[in-house]
Task: structure prediction
Amino acid sequence: MGLAKSGILSEVEFYKMIMLPYEDQPDYLLCDDFKWIENEFFVWIRHDRIEDFVDYFVTKFGKECFDYKSTKADLTIDHVIINMTDLIGHAVDIESVFPKDPRMFSEKIDDHIMWG
Result:
């Protein structure tokens, strides 16, 4: 586990990017959806938020992630779908943040709420 540019653990910064990127704007999310498909983690970003997503990502993780290797993205009528495993899987243990087994994720959320 490394540190993001902000000095916060990369996994924490990744969680914030997906779940609550702007604490002062809790209803403004960068990603509409996220999930594992086989062994890869994908996010769905609305077209009107892609620039905000890239700006946020570069601010927190740096431009170097884009230099690491090519990242595939799919374009749909409503979203850009990005394979985050390709983009940042070398720097963030994504499965420790968002387990492949959804029951594990809900247990983590319950623990967070319970123990705060």
Remarks:
- The first strand starts at residue 33 and ends at 37.
